Q: What sequence folds into this?
């Protein structure tokens, strides 16, 4: 044993094999330079894993804060958008009420008007300029489509057909479209010749459709009739209407070109002379019109002519904030009592 201890004590000599106690392995984490601490225990070095844990926790905390800030910003944006949407909806509803108020005003004006004669110098015919209202403005106008030629009269009235042919010539449209228009109106499926068209023709178009075989509900339907291209439609549209039932041209409201269609051979100067005579003194009757020098010696059919109107169109537009409301109402006046028979947003189909 003494020899083993001596060998262990000699520097550089390895311990004797099989002799004495085996050398203890150094404990992990022991600082070899410091050995034992002052209290006789082992000193342990700080672990690197603790610093990494603190870094992960900091990054996580920053990420949570960033997510919370993003959520708060999104919520604020959504609240702002909701408030803006609510404001726009409120403004739109308010504008719609103002437009309906203009319609109610128009009905009162028409109820107070003398229904025996209607002309462009009456109170109802004067447009209402923009009027200030809370948050915006409202304006309106009343017109009568009965200064135009009613497409729905063409099937029943020979006088109306003659005027339509003259109108086509005046606006440089082929009068040959008349048979197709009559086929569009009549209830049968037999095409007129030449130039007529029924379902046999329209179902071959792309896209296919069918003839109305009934009255025009909208002037824009004229585009669907055989032979009426866009150019022809645009030339005719300012002078035609689509009114239900029997109509009559109010000669106190008809433009000079429509007045030219009252008889064969009338010139542009004749139409202008009739319009000037009417402006000086509105016609109180159709007979008064027929006594005008411009019509002397002319064969003028009294059928389908009048000096008063039954149908009117009320247009109203209101603006509140950035919202706008447009209303177009068709009014029928019977025995002096006006009644709304149609209403649409923007425009009505009885006239372009």
A:
């Amino acid at each position: 044993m003494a020899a083993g201890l001596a060998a262990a004590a000699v520097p550089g000599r390895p311990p004797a094999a099989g002799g004495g106690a085996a050398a203890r392995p150094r404990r992990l984490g022991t600082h070899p330079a410091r050995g034992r601490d002052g209290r006789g225990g082992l000193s342990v070095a700080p672990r690197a894993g603790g610093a990494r844990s603190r870094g992960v926790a900091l990054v996580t905390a920053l990420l949570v804060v960033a997510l919370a800030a993003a959520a708060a910003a999104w919520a604020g944006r959504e609240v702002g958008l909701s408030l803006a949407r609510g404001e726009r909806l409120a403004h739109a509803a308010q504008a719609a009420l103002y437009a309906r108020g203009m319609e109610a005003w128009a009905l009162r004006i028409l109820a107070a008007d003398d229904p025996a004669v209607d002309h462009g110098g009456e109170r109802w015919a004067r447009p209402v300029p923009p009027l200030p209202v809370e948050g915006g403005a409202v304006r309106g106008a009343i017109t009568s489509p009965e200064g135009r030629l009613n497409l729905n009269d063409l099937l029943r009235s020979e006088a109306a057909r003659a005027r339509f042919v003259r109108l086509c010539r005046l606006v440089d449209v082929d009068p040959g479209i008349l048979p197709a228009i009559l086929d569009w109106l009549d209830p049968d499926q037999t095409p007129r010749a030449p130039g007529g068209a029924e379902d046999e023709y329209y179902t071959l178009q792309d896209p296919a459709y069918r003839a109305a075989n009934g009255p025009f509900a909208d002037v824009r339907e004229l585009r669907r009739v055989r032979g009426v291209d866009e150019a022809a439609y645009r030339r005719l549209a300012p002078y035609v209407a689509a009114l239900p039932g029997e109509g009559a041209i109010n000669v106190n409201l008809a433009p000079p070109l429509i007045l030219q269609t009252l008889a064969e051979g009338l010139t542009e100067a004749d139409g202008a002379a009739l319009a000037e005579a009417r402006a000086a003194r509105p016609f109180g009757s159709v007979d008064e019109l027929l006594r005008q020098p411009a019509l002397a010696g002319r064969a003028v059919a009294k059928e389908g002519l009048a000096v008063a109107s039954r149908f009117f169109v009320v247009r109203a537009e209101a603006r509140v904030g950035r919202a706008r409301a447009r209303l177009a109402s068709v009014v029928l006046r019977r025995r002096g009592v006006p009644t709304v028979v149609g209403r649409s947003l923007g425009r009505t189909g009885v006239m372009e």
Observations:
- The chain is about 35% helix and 15% strand.
- The domain at 147-247 is CATH 1.10.40.60 (Ribonucleotide Reductase Protein R1; domain 1).
- Strands lie at 128-133, 136-143, 149-150, 240-241, 249-250, 305-306, 311-320, 323-334, 337-344.
- The two ends are 127 Å apart (CA to CA).
